[in-house]
Amino acid sequence: MTRKPLRRIMLGTAATVSGIVLLLALKPHSAPAPALAHAAVPASSQPPSSSAPKASGGGSKASGGSKANGGGSKASGGAKANGTPRTSSPQRTQTVTGDTVQTDYGPVQVRVTLVGGRITGVTALQSPSGNPRSEEIASYSIPQLTREAIAAQSAHIDAVSGASYTSAGYSQSLQSALDRAGG
């Protein structure tokens, strides 16, 4: 039985080249749509009162959130969603900052806004930004983590694929903020 080393070499080379071409053809994650890039609070999560302050969105490190709805302030009363007047006391609005969590790619820190004990917004105060790749990962993972935290109403959220360290830091910082808020 004769061996055909040239054929094996050619097939191996062709398979390697094909794999490299396919790998290079993959597009990196793109940033979410502008409406989602700022970790906006869904309308269904807003307090029913139109005079209550809105949660400050934003994923920008420079924004830092609004101080207008400072921690512990009382939101005004109003009517429930079905139009009946409230009989209980107004819902309490809290804004609490979590610990800064150091990851392999940079610090992660969040600020959570709670209305009546429910998470209505999460703002990333710090996210990995040491290089363009870290910034790209943070740009798509932070808004997704924020949506998951609001939906789950806790820090027990799924990690974003490709952003394991950022996801872990986000979850830890969020948990520390919730612990401080008493939730």
From TrEMBL:
Ranges for region Disordered: 32-106
Feature: compositional bias, Gly residues: 56-75
UniProt domain FMN-binding: residue ranges: 104-181
Pfam family, one: FMN_bind
Biased segments, Low complexity type: 32-55, 93-106
Highest taxon above the source species: Bacteria
Protein name: FMN-binding protein
Source species: Streptantibioticus rubrisoli
Biological classification of the source: Bacteria, Bacillati, Actinomycetota, Actinomycetes, Kitasatosporales
